[in-house]
Task: structure prediction
Amino acid sequence: MSQSSKQKVVVVGAGPVGALAALYAAGRGDHVEVYELRDDLRDPSTTPLNFTKSINLALSERGINSMKHAKCDGLLDAVLDESIPMYGRMIHGQGQDGKLYQESQAYDAKGRYIRAVDRAALNKRLLDYLEKMPNVALHFNHKLTGADFKNNTAWFEQRLIPKKDHAQNPTDHGSTQSDHDRPREISVDFDFLIGTDGAHSAARYHMMKYARLSYQQEYIDTLWCEFHISPSASDSSYMISPNHLHIWPGGSLMFIAIPSLDRSFTCTLFAPASYFTSLSNSPSEELVSSFSQNFPGVCPELISPGELQAQFTQNPHLPLISIKCTPYHYGSSVVILGDAAHAMVPFYGQGMNAGLEDVRILFDILDSHDVYNDSPSLATSRKERREGALNAYTAQRTPDAAAINDLALRNYEEMRSGVKSPLYRMRKWFEETINIYLPSLGWRTQYSRVSFENQRYSEVERAVARQGRIILSALGLGLLGLSGLTTITFLKRDTLRPLKALMNHFRI
Result:
């Protein structure tokens, strides 16, 4: 790409999705400027937007494949070297005899696994690679305050005090800055703006002034609170298996634990808001008693009563939001990706993976629409080609994002109670058995399709629904066969032909 034909791309938000988008654009020769509300995210004192100091994420095929296509030498290897394989769920409970038990449920019949990664470490790797690129500029402590998407100008407030938390959870800075001092505002011209600034996106807010954007926001009746399991005091080893995602299903409650490289576990309690309110207004013994009843084996075995109470009291109790909107773009000027476009609840571990996949799909479509083709023989301008690409991106990605949003909500029910259901286990066994012994049928579990493949989320939803209908039909025919076994022996052979045709069609 010639110097004169380079695009100026502004990326709002320097989290993993924004950093990867900047890498894709810079790798294609664009001049890229990244603007981030907070201080440098590589600084340990910078608190993430969810207010927690440490958060572990599940990295799976979609995220891995998207980083692979960034074509940054060594990036993916560096990220994977700092991850922990998780081969399945470890379900914890207590038997009727009072004994604690744990049951491993493999994610995949073929041994594939997801990886636990530290969000801050992943973000640091991406930003470090960006910083090395000569056509990238990083600007921290810059708040997007306005945008004109017809004339392609954005305004940023250059914060004089680094922002350490989210606007919904402000702290008293105790600063010596005068109240009369106003942050300096700058204007930035651009060819293309990519908004990756999270669920409470300023880019989306300003885009809504131009695009006829349909928007749906839902807070589910569940809050979450982070806990921490320290390494063993005796030998600094992991207290429980590091190669599983640990789940204590509790019906309407759930407690999970994800391993960290320092041999600790980042844990999360999910529960209705009323549960948090009740325990917050009760004596500390009630919390310990509740954990003993609902999450046997956590306290005091893994977390002492004192630590449990301290973490419950000190760590914030945060909401879970689900956002759907469309379109994801306006004209040729702006597109929103990741949580800015489709924030989802965390129960499928796909929030970050879907956001990273947004980046890959967006730039695949930009490439297919010749946005980076400098040939003078093209009949349309780059601006026109980019607008066509963004139209195609919204058309393709909207149903996929809606599908994974819905799948994530439904997976909460599976994780907090379904994993112990005989019907869940039977379907999982049935689908995995067919996948292993009759691979030509194309049967896979929903989890395998979502976490270990790059199949479109909307196609996953349709394929799994079809498999479910077949299973139900097979079960129904089986029950019918058992109940009518005596009668069916007297039926004419012609009567059996539709049944045989149905079985041959599905090869079951």
About this structure: Confidence is low (pLDDT under 50) at residues 165-176, 485-508. The two ends are 55 Å apart (CA to CA).
